Amino acid sequence: MIELGLAPLSRALANGEFSSVELTQAYLHQIAQENSDLNAYVTVCEELALSQARAADEARSQGNAGPLTGIPIAHKDLFCTQGIRTACGSKMLDNFIAPYNATVVENFIKAGSVTLGKTNMDEFAMGSSNETSFYGPVKNPWDRSLVPGGSSGGSAAAVAARLCAGATATDTGGSIRQPASFTGITGLKPTYGRVSRWGMVAFASSLDQAGTMTQSAEDAAMMLNVMAGLDLKDSTSSDTAAEDYTKDLDKPLAGLKIGIPTQHFSEGLNADVEKCIREAIAEFEKLGATVREVSLDNSHLSVSAYYVIAPAEASANLSRYDGVRYGYRCKDPVNLEDMYKRTRSEGFGTEVKRRIMVGTYALSAGYYDAYYIKAQKIRRLIKNDFQKAFEEVDVIMGPTSPHTAFAIGSKNDDPVTMYLEDIYTIAVNLAGLPGMSIPAGLVNGLPVGLQIVGKDFAEAQLLNVAHKFQQATDWHEKSPVN
Amino acid sequence: MEWETVIGLEVHVQLATASKLFSGTSTEFGAQPNTQANIYDLAMPGTLPVLNAEALRMAVKFGLAIDAEIGKTSVFDRKNYFYPDLPKGYQTSQLDFPTVGKGQLVIDMEDGSQRTIGVTRAHMEEDAGKSLHEDFHGKTGIDLNRAGTPLLEIVSEPDLRNAREAVAYLKKLHSIILYLGISDGDMSQGSMRCDANVSVRPKGTTELGNRTEIKNINSFRFVEKAINIEVQRQIDIIEDGGKIVQETRLYDADKNETRSMRSKEVANDYRYFPEPDLLPIVIDDAYIESVRTTLPELPDIKKQRFQDEYALSEYDAMILSSDLSTADYFEEVAKACGDAKLSANWVMGDLQASLNKDEISISESPISSDALAGLIKRIKDNTISSKIAKTVFEAMLAGEGDADSIIESKGLKQVTDAGAIEKMVDEVIANNPAQVQQFKEGKEQVIGFFVGQIMKASQGKANPAQVNQLLKEKLSS
Q1: Of the partner residues B49, B90, B277, the one whose CB lies closest to the CB of residue A319
Q2: Alpha-carbon separation of residue A349 from A122, A354, A454, B197, B257 (angstroms)
Q3: Could you report the per-residue pLDDT of A392-439, keeping only the tens digit for each?
Q4: Where a domain ends, among B381, B410, B439?
């Protein structure tokens, strides 16, 4: 049963084909089999999961079941979970147990879902390969010598390896879409502000957005139904009304206008990946869509702007990890400065420290205008590029990543090479737009992801576009699990 | 050389909101350490700020009261620095787009003169917690109850020219915030804290000298003393050929000296940037007007009204209007007794003196405004003289009842019976022939002696006007 996606599982539970307890046990069994090698989970909540599953079955027997009741899911380990460690991939929070739930977590509890555990991730969501985690790299279920992508590599691998029905994740510069692409699953990053950030350990506040990792667009729609909406605890959450994201799934695509950004099919894109993407787009034409080129003139600036803004915000967001109130504190500090220095030197990993340094530098007196202010101007230009393109097209499509998953350890020497991993995804975060990655083919047996970007709050349309493609193709059903 | 002092004040006012600036935690003073700090105040991962609408309303109210530009779009920024009682590692404040822009304040000097002092800006920010260095055996305790309490930082232009002006500015500010009800303004509890930027320059020049910032001066008196001592220190250094180092200094009230805290050159680069967890605050005219309707009558307006409506002198009107409770008390007395001048004299005189002596505020006065009005009525209708009134007042203070019952029980009613007074006059004249002789020889001031004798004989109850008149008649005959 675990090979099924979230939507079919929901129907099977509703039909009484099996119980949530049976389903949960099946996942726990699979996790026990696979996780020691894959390293997708950093925490497995066996007892909690089973008690939630029993409660879900009980609720169902009393006629109180919703679509997500009894569905076993996993949370990226940066969503705070009351009573369960939230380590964010860092030694700094290795001992941190939040006394509260993130709004996202709370929403799934209210929906009756089962929490299988917390998934591995790059430290503080900083990374594109899941290799910066204090808990070690996650392996790609398609080829265990490869990375699953990052930073939501644990959630991606868990879904791809059928260790959960779906997983929450977050995307600051591509952290949902790139791992979804590398592991052959469907990743959805909603519009900035669509899902509450309350209880989500912050990396870059103006870019962070919670989303979903699932087998299909339909699964994603069902999860988003639980996650989306205004949260008064998050001042940046949007009061644009949330919708039933499943309602438009089957809308025909006739007349859909697809934009193909010239800049996303240029130098650096692997030829086989390009072929997959072009074939996928041709499939959309068969479904009645029209395709035209659009230009995102400033997209070449997106990585540079991002690596000023995100580290700048991160440098402040991570100041709270000072050893005073919770989290890691160095041994036997001799004075305050010693405590600060050693706590942060010992508690943070290399990539996190690099970004704190970069961000601190970018905000420093004398550099602020040249870096931070300039980056914000570029951000505005990038947003304008998208707005202009969306005057002509409904969605924008292209590759999620220039290539398929790469080998563990192969890109660790040069941070800039790693930063360029997100070349197609970062602009979407800077513009705050919703984006997806859906499986669009295989190259040498490895998944290729198609990125679909929509207008602000057009999640329902994105999911419709993805769903129709998945109805017409079977790439999303390809699995590394036999 | 003659020197001119240039002073600018930065005043932090704790806004009297029920909860903190960005969290729902109570702001009540005096709770057990760390019992008023929720997960946001503790900067737990993933927690987010939500602006307290009441704090915004109070800031705008203050802006309107000082005729300031109100920022229709104000932006919170992060001010980054590490300190154990600053849980997030940054203070959420406002840098480029404060809620309150340029405004002004008219200060009243003791000689009755007035000056207009520019207010550069007033911005909202959160307070830090407290570091407690005692009782922890060489370690430091952190109390985060205060962390996140809303502050309004009010920054003046460098328009103040001496310590007395600085105090007058501070008193006016204090008066306004109490009028507005946006803070309890209690300097001893830190609800109002003052930093003074002080520099000196040769009189007649316009270039500013190097300034020092004196931190956290916690009373009006210390503001005056700290500035004076700092000005003298600076002048001494310059006159000895030295230079003023731009730095932060701490005022030590015990030693009456300022001393260096830290040099600005090595001060933090705060790396301000817009707070991404909060959207810019956008307010419209309708909002501003709705706040304007809640403005009370402000001290300057009230002062003018007191002059117009009660024919008070400018000085009396200023004293009575500077404190809202005093102003209200005075008006209640004046209305109830119908004599504003007498009311003003009693409120500013005997009542204030007794309150000062007992170190209590007028709102805690043992004599209510009604009771004081009752006393003044008896002066006005000649039941008692002003002198006897003081005796009655003392008895009222001692809790012996209201004016009428005290007059009754102590038999203090003024003697106005012409026959009785005449009898006393005759007796005094008969018993003091020498003084009568002096009077007849033209030494008219001796009449005071007779009045005194009669008042003594009547235990102060004889009507002085009647006594005077009769004496003059009898002595001159």
Answers
A1: B90
A2: 10, 9, 35, 43, 48
A3: 999 999 999 999 999 999 998 888 888 888 899 999 999 999 999 999
A4: B410
